[in-house]
Queue: 3 jobs
Job 1
Amino acid sequence: MRGDGGGPKTAKGKRTVSRNALKHGLSSEAPVVRQVERIEDWERHLEAVIASSEPDGYLETELTVRIAGILWRLRRVALYEANKISVVLDQMPEYLAASARYGAKVTGRPAEEMTLEKVEMQTGIRMIPDDETLKGITRYESHLHRQLLQTLHELEAMQARRLGEHSPLARLDITGPPGS
């Protein structure tokens, strides 16, 4: 044990030490879905968010890690939406063929010819997820967005107070879920 108080004396040194928790075990709690995401990508993302936020001390670092997690999850929402659309588009040829066979069977006429124009129209229709999926995505994305704003505001206020600047006691967030 050192008698001089130990830790770093400069602001830069304190910021560096505040990140030690990130280097020693934080990745074990990383919000990474092993089957589709890589821990290395999370760590790179986390380091970039930390570098952008320049936290000082434990609490600012924790808020910054929370921000990184929310941003990571928001990225995943966009990937989920793209995957849902891709699955529908991949199934479209089978759906159109089955639909044409059914129509021919019901009407007794030959199956309608599928033109490029008709395929493009059907592709355009399927570029937006079905209502139920879209509602779920929108609700989840809105929830994460509100969490992100609240956490960013808290971090900014904390950093302003640390620097001796004025920080508002409260902020009015007028965003909300769609239709509210």
Note: The longest helix spans residues 58-107.
Job 2
Amino acid sequence: MVNYKRTSHAIYFIQYHICWPVKYRKTIITTVIGQTIKNTIADIADGYGWEIIAQGMETDHYHILLCVQPRFAPSKVVELIKSNSARIIFRKFPDVKNRLWGGEFWADGYCITTVGKALNTEQVKRYIQRQDITVQL
């Protein structure tokens, strides 16, 4: 059974699986940086009223399964998460900026899919959770 969400003017079920790499595909994400990314993005999502279903990452890219209201364009969701999380990462880990010439943490592009009949939420959730960092650099 699909759990529909409600706003004052809409009933919806919108889930995005979004993935994007670190700039230059550098292996920057350690366990500590990864936990900061997860916490920061959880705070961003809470601030906008989005529901994180799963988060996971490897040393050079990040995945999220997210439920958002229909008033947010997918590109705006990505922009808000990437820009705000990069600012926090650079503030907490200033040495990371030195490893990424150009001053950007995330690469410009991203991949986004909706979760529906072809891929259900549990399949995507399990896939993302398997992406989690298991070793510390």
Note: The chain has one domain: 11-130.
Job 3
Amino acid sequence: MRWQGQVLVNPVSPKGIIDLEFAKTPEKLSTLKAVWIKKDVKTNIYLDFLFIISYTWFFILTCLYIKKRTSTNTIAWVFITIAVLAGMLDLIENCLMLFAIDHSNNARALKFTYYFALLKFILIGILIFYLILSISFLRIKKFKIQLDKH
């Protein structure tokens, strides 16, 4: 994604496609559209659909792995739900960005895109925090078991 999206990075949009995700106003969108090639933006968004499937599946499998090795059944399902919700928000956000690229005067679509992106990033941050803590806990638990054997 970063390799293909590099064509969207420039002084006007130093963060590439993320600048579109957080473009809340038609003026900001117009500025981005003035420096981007529409085909490149759409290609990046279409590739992101594949990335969404990949990261959502990865998060689900990792949560299931943690669920299998701990007694946190309910918590694991909560975080699986968070992973699916983040993926769904990202799908909707991508559709809204495609719409915005073709209809730049729609401020409402841009605001929804902004808030969906913000919520998606917050949920993914919470999910990653949970995964890091859980996997760290599993490694500590495994290490303790190995120490007890010796």
Note: The chain has six helices and no strands.
